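user: Kindly work through both lines:
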Amino acid sequence: MRSAPNPPETAEAVRRARFGALPERIRPEEMVEERAATLPDPARDAYSSDEWLVRYCL
């Protein structure tokens, strides 16, 4: 035997209780995590064009 369908008021109340509120919005900045692939090398940024000229051109 089939049960009688819920009356519209009851079905609406059940639906609103289950799906009544949307989840909080997540910003795109919160969806991405940025990490350096390698540790920074301080010697890499130690280049000086003046030092290069002194060593190799004079």
In short: The longest helix spans residues 8-19. The chain has a mean pLDDT of 79. Helices lie at 8-19, 49-56.
